Amino acid sequence: MAGAIKIMGGSDIRIIDCGFSNFENGVDAENCSGLHINGNHFHNVKNPVKARKINGLVAKRNIDHSTFTKTSNRLQLTLIAVLVKEYMMILKRNLYANV
User: Fold this and answer.
1) Mind giving me the DSSP string for the chain?
2) How many CB atoms lie within 10 A of CB 12?
3) First CA to last CA across the chain, in angstroms?
4) What is the mean pLDDT of each run of 10 residues along the chain (99 residues)?
5) What phi and psi values does residue 91 have, to the nearest 5 degrees?
6) Which of 28, 42, 72, 95 has a 20 to 30 A CA-CA distance from 18?
7) Distance, CA of 81 to CA of 62 (rounded, Å)
8) pTM of the model
């Protein structure tokens, strides 16, 4: 499986009312500002959203219909939970890098 959308840099990017099926990554964004991810549907997508170094991320009304998490015995996380988890990992990495 591959990624659907890869964004490296940019501003005022909107991904609205899209459908993603059978991808490793749905939206993979890095070094952006003003990224809006609204009203999207994810089916069998391992990582619906990967967001790194984003200034002004808005994510709402996205639905993860994936059965991928059920087959791998992982907890199914909502999109916002995935984003929070990724952000916390980045903060933790940065904290240990400065020690």
Assistant:
1) --EEEEEES-EEEEEES-EEEEEEEEEEEEEEEEEEEES-EEEEEEEEEEEEEEES-EEES-EE--SHHHHTTPPP--HHHHHHHHHHHHHHHHHHHT-
2) 10
3) 37
4) 88 94 92 94 90 91 72 53 78 75
5) -60, -45
6) 72
7) 12
8) 0.66
Residue with tokens 């609204």: 38
β-sheet bridge partners, residue 29: 7, 51
CA distance 96 to 12: 32
As a whole number of angstroms, the distance between CA 85 and CA 99 comes to: 22
- Domains of the chain, by residue range, sit at 3-97
Tokens representing residue 33 in the block: 């500002």
Q: Which of 22, 24, 98, 15 is nearest to 62 (CA)?
A: 15
